[in-house]
Amino acid sequence: MQRKNIVIVGTSGHGFVVMEILQLMQEYNIVGFIDSFKPKNTPCIDHLTVLGHENDIPTLTATYDIYGGIVAIGDNTDRANMVSRIKAVAPGFKFVNACHPSSVVSPRAIIGEGNVLCANVVINTNTTIGNFCIVNTASSIDHDNQIMDFTSIAPGVTTGGNVNIGANTAIGIGAVIKHRINIGEQCVVGAGAVVLSDVSPRSVWYGTPARKIRDRQPGDKYL
Ligand SMILES: CC(=O)SCCNC(=O)CCNC(=O)[C@H](O)C(C)(C)COP(=O)(O)OP(=O)(O)OC[C@H]1O[C@@H](n2cnc3c(N)ncnc32)[C@H](O)[C@@H]1OP(=O)(O)O
């Protein structure tokens, strides 16, 4: 079967991680990168270059027969804004998932669209991953979790069963989240935190056990 042509939006290190995952999947043909800041034809990696700005996607779709692609931007707010812009200029653009072949995803898990599951990720039974999330290298998301849209899970995070993580929240590298914990939307859980109690929306928590450090304001940086 002929592979569908896709683009990767974002040319950071994360963009190249996503590119390698997509290459290993052998389901899509990557035609190039989209970037808001780099000029067209900027070399990226392998033979791939920047094809244009997100506003160029409609034209590029006609030129390259583009099916869709993935937004590979690590910051949750920037990723969400980019998805909105693409939906506005190219409503037919299909957002694909990049799931590393070494990831172990339960057949009873539900995975939305536009997600990245990196190497050695485990998604256990009855867990739902929304849309446009990043589950980074070797993270383990256990049974009956609900991970909402535009959330990012850094490398080596472990969640127990029945954990809920709200939209646009960032969980830092190596954090551990006890079973039956609810984490609100737009939160930051710092690197190495051990979360033993519920995390209120729009707040920053870290430490062992994790404590609330401060509220987050709109536009505050994530990691
Ligand atoms: C593939 C990838 O790279 S994915 C990305 C992976 N990266 C991450 O996961 C990074 C996660 N980020 C963090 O943990 C950050 O430190 C944040 C977001 C929690 C920063 O929080 P801030 O409150 O702004 O921290 P700030 O840098 O101002 O430091 C304030 C104090 O808190 C401490 N601190 C900061 N983060 C943590 C943490 N995670 N755990 C314990 N203490 C911390 C600092 O050491 C500092 O202490 P001091 O005042 O005694 O010197």
TrEMBL record:
InterPro entries in alphabetical order: AcTrfase_PglD-like, PglD_N, Trans_hexapeptide_repeat, Trimer_LpxA-like_sf
Domain of life: Bacteria
Domain PglD N-terminal positions: 5-85
CDD domains recorded: LbH_AT_putative
NCBIfam families noted in UniProt: NeuD_NnaD (TIGR03570)
Family under the similarity heading: Belongs to the transferase hexapeptide repeat family.
The name this protein goes by in its record: Acetyltransferase
Natural source organism: Chitinophaga oryzae
